[in-house]
Design a protein that fits this description.
The chain is α/β, with parallel strands linked by helices. The protein contains seven helices and ten strands. It has one domain: Rossmann fold (3-Layer(aba) Sandwich). The strands form three sheets. The protein has a six-stranded parallel β-sheet with strand order 5-4-3-8-9-10, with helices on both faces. A two-stranded antiparallel sheet has the order 1-2. It has a two-stranded antiparallel ribbon with strand order 6-7.
Length: about 230
């Protein structure tokens, strides 16, 4: 399975404008809010990546996802909320026949209240009922004796799309035998989904925002049978 192809920024702009997301297009030209440069461990203004956001919005719509779990928050939170809202308007009756107890909900987990507040304030009022935010500390831990990170707890849901863009490697607490991700030569290595793997239903899709090393960590799990992008 591949995510939709977007040929140019111009194509992304047209798609987003046609979907009523002109404020995101405008923000890409005027500048974004604070983000984290994980290599430099500094906060810098991030502009929305229109091509990436367009692909994510189209993917949710085309794959008819119903429940999204997002690790970390950003411009994608607005995109996911909007896509789910549009699907809700079209399929609210159809989904009643499915085994879906959290239909058309986005659950966002993050350990940094500043970024949660930014995401909340940016989402339009009409989408506020779609997104739920969960502030949870992230800590160092192990999975099968391999060092990784875990959020303190997870939302009690069964998502059919999981988007991994958190936690920030420098905000994770604690260490394992003196080792942590809080080093400029390290990289994010979350392990939360490995603990709940067998509760996820067939067809669940995981998308990593970069984080190639973390995706390899998941693929090294002997029993992992999920679709990972």
């Amino acid at each position: 399975m591949i995510t939709p192809k977007v040929n140019s920024i111009e194509d992304a702009e047209i798609y987003l404008l046609n979907n009523g997301l002109e404020k995101i297009v405008k923000a890409s030209k005027n500048g974004g809010e604070l983000g984290v440069n994980e290599k430099l461990e500094t906060r810098i203004p991030f502009k929305p990546d229109l091509i990436d956001l367009c692909r994510l919005h189209r993917f949710v719509i085309e794959q008819k996802r119903t429940t999204i779990l997002e690790f970390g928050t950003g411009w994608s939170t607005w995109i996911f909320s909007d896509a789910l809202f549009k699907l809700k308007l079209k399929f609210s009756e159809d989904v009643k026949s499915l085994r879906r107890n959290n239909p058309f909900e986005l659950h966002v987990i993050d350990d940094e209240p500043e970024f949660i507040q930014i995401a909340k304030s940016r989402i339009p009022d009409a989408l506020q009922s779609i997104a739920s935010f969960h502030k949870r500390p992230a800590k160092m831990g192990t999975f099968n004796d391999r060092i990784c990170t875990f959020y303190e707890s997870l939302p009690h849901i069964s998502p059919d799309l999981i988007y991994v863009d958190g936690p920030n490697q420098f905000s994770v607490q604690g260490d394992i035998d003196g080792w942590s991700t809080r080093h400029k030569d390290m990289m994010p290595m979350m392990g939360d989904l490995l603990r709940i793997e067998h509760f996820l239903t067939p067809g669940t899709i995981i998308i990593f925002d970069g984080r190639a090393a973390n995706s390899r960590f998941f693929k090294c799990s002997k029993n992992l049978g999920l679709s990972i992008r």
